[in-house]
Amino acid sequence: MDEDISEISARTRNQKIIDFFINNKKRIVIGLSILILLVFSYFSYGEIKKRNKIKIAEKYNNSKINFFSESKNNIENEMFEIIKKKDQTYSPLALYFLLDNNIINSKEKINDLFDIIINETKLEKEIKNLTIYKKAIYNSDFGTENDLLKILNPIINSDSIWKPHALYLLGEYFLSKNEKQKSKEFFEKVLNLENNNSKIRLEAEKKIQRDLSE
Q1: Number of domains in the chain
Q2: 7 pLDDT exceeds 60?
Q3: Looking at the domain assignment, is residue 100 inside a domain?
Q4: Which percentage of the chain shows pLDDT scores above 90?
């Protein structure tokens, strides 16, 4: 008797499962189709990104080769196109290449390119902070106090590994302007940091002892 009841229950359960698939066949097919489409799209997107990365890398390397082979006519436009791709690897490299080789003279244009890298390119946190620091170095030769502080504030108000470098740069900047009190304040901030860069700390101590001791 118990075996008959168990068999009837199993048949009922199986029939319910069959009825569920029959009654929801359209929804199940649509759901599976969407799932397959999502998986396909994910892998397709990854492959497209990979191919685009390879193309940008080839363009960057070819532009460098052409530049050092004395074919320099299009280097600015080529590197600018790479920067506009907003690639987290090659866009910053393209900007640094333009800077290192003094290819662009316009300060405004250089700062615009820095802003594309900093504000529009998806960089890792410390790579972004490094780019901010490099922008500050570039502007330190001609920028105002407010300019530099505005650029460096995101680093100064963080726990970035580049914070000691940013504070030291400001100390150097004010020392070059003969504003010794401000300079000393920033060098002392370097000394007061925890987990400080030992080399930067040593240089800050030297500056205070050699140039700012009363």
Answers
A1: 2
A2: no
A3: yes
A4: 57
Is residue 123 within 8 Å of 92, Cβ to Cβ?
yes
- What separation, in Å, do the N-terminal and C-terminal C-alpha atoms of the chain show? 105
**Do residues 132 and 119 both lie within one domain?**
no
Helix/strand/coil (H/E/C) assignment for every residue in 39-102: HHHHHHHHHHHHHHHHHHHHHHHHHHHHHHCCCCCCHHHHHHHHHHCCCCCHHHHHHHHHHHCC
pLDDT 10s digits, 133-185: 999 999 999 999 999 999 999 999 999 999 999 999 999 999 999 999 999 99
pLDDT of residue 67: 87
Question: Do 113 and 135 reside in the same domain of the chain?
Answer: no
The parent domain of residue 86 ranges over: 58-123
Whether 150 is in a domain gets the answer yes
The domain spanning residue 171 has which CATH number?
Answer: 1.25.40
